[in-house]
Design goal:
Blueprint (H helix, E strand, L loop, with lengths): L2 H15 L4 E5 L15 H6 L7 E4 L4 E5 L4 H7 L6 E4 L5 H8 L5 E4 L6 H12 L4 E4 L4 H5 L12 E2 L2 H4 L3 H15 L3 E4 L2 H8 L1 E2 L11 E6 L4 E5 L6 H7 L3 E4 L4 H4 L7 E4 L6 H9 L3 E4 L5 H5 L3 H28 L7 H13 L4 E4 L4 E4 L23 E6 L1 E3 L2 E2 L2 E6 L5 H18 L2 E2 L5 H4 L5 H4 L10 E3 L8 E6 L18 E4 L2 E4 L3 E4 L2 E8 L8 E6 L17 H18 L5 H10 L6
Parallel strand pairs: 1-5, 3-4, 5-6, 8-13, 11-12, 13-14
Antiparallel strand pairs: 1-2, 2-3, 7-9, 8-10, 10-11, 15-18, 16-17, 17-20, 18-19, 21-28, 22-23, 24-27, 25-26, 27-28
């Protein structure tokens, strides 16, 4: 029996001990985070799945793992088909699968600290129709059988300077207080880790690659706040930074504190708060108001300081990536390089800037068939040699005090095939179409998504992930609420209107299973634009990322005159901005890579 098969058996025994016939295992934590600390990686521990989004459902005789199109290949490589059925979402749901597999009278458990209230209500109704019951557990059964489960990170909180934040925490809390008075609420619960980090101008190191700390915040209508965080994380400097208006409590006191709101109206974001928070407020006599976290839009809409910081981070990061692209183009054809060694070299170039605080996510360093797995994660066991005839895809980013970066480039190792060049050029055409879009206020990413797909659709092709996601300011590399995606794709809905100051990725791709993958990703800033003769101020994109786009993969005959002009102008920006800060050899290589392309 494999390790993961044994773990599944142990879980089933524990479920029987707790009087349960099933259990649902989401890949999240009690803050509804996308990326979670090691202590919360229950789905990965149970199944071996290494992706960042998924859910497991376990019944006495059958189990299923639910993943979206980003992980279709990966889940089959990492999770045993002997133990788990593979179920695609959003075409299918956990509730639908449970209904089709549970027996009448079954008791299916869930951890109320890991699911939203909407999920609980929908699943409970679905099971009840089949004579089954959804049961909240007081203790997660996986924790009972995960004997070497890591402890939460003890890393201390750190201050995020007002110069980098562009606004003091007091001013941000005052804005939240104004909002509370407008909506008639006495307080708001802030469970999302990046919301607390943004609101209080603090950062942490509790989640890999995301500079946040495990904490909750409650803001009162007078602008004061209660921060719930492990005491060992607090330093004298952070206490002084927060000031007397922020009362600090042990994180363990958060759940009991939710019962102190008898007769009060408490705003709670139903998309970001787990069911247990709603339950505790209402059990204590409070009224839970399902309202959006008031920090979400201000956090996503970068101010002048954050925009200036991201521009600086983009230049620094682009120079490191350019050095890497020259290195991989020279070294990979010689042999001896692997997916792991390449990722490590890129990290070294970023570290040599002297400003890197962390990567913004584990690099997707993928050659050949691994490139066809959009969210591939390289390990010692999976790392392949980079060989001639392949396409090497590198999707990576850095965390800097002044900005978070995310960029993807593809490098041909040797001479690419005509098909590779055709697919790459179609992806580039879609990338340019989105980068050059002009649109009115109120437009959502869903309305723009097709622009990046049309050149692929024209050839009967597509890609099974969103085209763009929001990016934080020295925060989460995936930041809501704005997305550029089909409504049925991850992050595709509900659709948020784009606003000036938002930063989003532009990353169309193409993936040929078992052979290669292509993705071209830059970050975009939403800006206002007045057009000659126009009757209203429009919105458009400014490309922030600066790094050469691989000319050896471009079939210039497929590009229009306007597309060639955009590419040439972009490469002029790249050379003029990065050239002066690059070593001489890298500067010469960059100038050659960015030479004008023939129409």
């Amino acid at each position: 029996m494999s390790t993961h098969s044994a773990r599944l058996s142990s879980l089933r025994e524990q479920l029987a001990h707790q009087g349960l016939d099933g259990f649902v295992v989401p890949l999240t934590d009690e803050h509804m985070s996308e990326y979670v600390g090691g202590y919360a990686q229950r789905l990965g521990w149970l199944t071996g799945f290494g992706g960042s989004a998924g859910t497991g459902a376990v019944l006495p005789e059958v189990a299923a793992i639910f993943t979206d199109g980003r992980y279709t290949i990966q889940v089959r490589e990492q999770v045993s088909a002997d133990d788990w059925q593979y179920v695609a979402v959003p075409e299918n749901s956990v509730a639908e699968w449970l209904v089709g597999n549970v027996a009448a009278g079954a008791r299916v458990g869930y951890d109320p600290w890991l699911h939203t209230r909407a999920w609980v209500e929908d699943t409970r109704v679905a099971l009840a129709a089949e004579g089954a019951t959804l049961v909240a557990v007081d203790a997660n059964p996986i924790d009972a059988v995960w004997h070497d489960r890591p402890a939460p990170s003890p890393a201390p909180l750190a201050m995020h300077s007002d110069a980098h934040a562009g606004e003091t925490s007091a001013a941000k809390r005052a804005r939240v207080a104004d909002w509370l008075n407008e909506v008639g609420a006495d307080a708001v619960v802030i469970p999302a880790l990046d919301s607390t980090a943004w609101l209080l101008n603090v950062r942490g190191a509790d989640v890999s690659r995301t500079p946040v700390a495990l904490a909750y915040t409650i803001v009162d209508a007078d602008g004061t706040a209660d921060l719930f965080v492990a005491p060992e994380k607090m330093t004298d400097a952070v206490h002084q930074h927060l000031g007397n208006a922020v009362r600090v409590h042990d994180r363990a006191e958060f759940a009991p504190a939710l019962g102190r709101f008898a007769g009060k109206r408490i705003a709670i974001d139903p998309a970001l708060a787990v069911a247990a928070i709603f339950d505790a407020v209402e059990a204590g006599g409070g009224t839970a108001l399902p309202l959006r976290d008031p920090t979400i839009i201000p956090k996503a809409t970068k101010n002048a300081a954050e925009i200036a910081g991201h521009r600086a981070a983009s230049i620094r990061d682009g120079a490191a990536l350019t050095r890497f692209l020259r290195w991989i183009a020279a070294e990979a054809p010689k042999g001896g390089q692997t997916e792991l060694s390449a990722a490590a070299q890129l990290q070294r170039f970023r570290e040599e800037t002297g400003e890197l605080r962390d990567l913004s996510f584990d690099a997707i360093s993928a050659t050949g068939p691994h490139g066809a797995i959009p969210h591939y994660h390289v390990t010692e066991e999976s790392s392949l040699p980079i060989e001639p005839g392949q396409l090497y895809l590198i999707d990576s980013g850095g965390q800097y005090l002044d900005g978070t970066t995310d960029v993807t480039r593809v490098v041909p190792i040797g001479t690419p095939t005509a098909e590779m060049r055709d697919r790459y050029t179609r992806v580039l055409k879609g990338h340019i179409a989105l980068a050059t879009a002009t649109f009115p206020p109120g437009t959502s990413g869903q309305q723009l998504d097709a622009l990046a797909r049309l050149p692929l659709w024209a050839a009967g092709l597509d890609f099974a992930h969103g085209t763009g996601h929001g990016v934080g300011s020295f925060l989460a590399v995936h930041e809501g609420p704005a997305r550029i995606a089909k409504p049925t794709y991850p992050g595709g809905g509900p659709q948020e209107p784009l606003r000036a100051g938002m930063i989003l990725s532009n990353e169309p791709g193409y993936y040929k299973a078992g052979e290669y993958g292509i993705r071209i990703e830059n970050l975009l800033l939403v800006v206002e634009r007045d057009l000659p003769g126009g009757e209203a101020t429009m919105l458009a994109f400014e490309t922030l990322t600066l790094a050469p786009i691989e000319r050896d993969l471009i079939d210039a005959a497929l590009l229009s005159h306007e597309e060639c002009a955009w590419l040439d102008a972009y490469h002029v920006r790249v050379t003029e901005t990065l050239g002066p800060i690059l070593p001489e050899d890298d500067r010469a290589w960059l100038a050659e890579k960015c030479a004008p392309i023939a129409p």
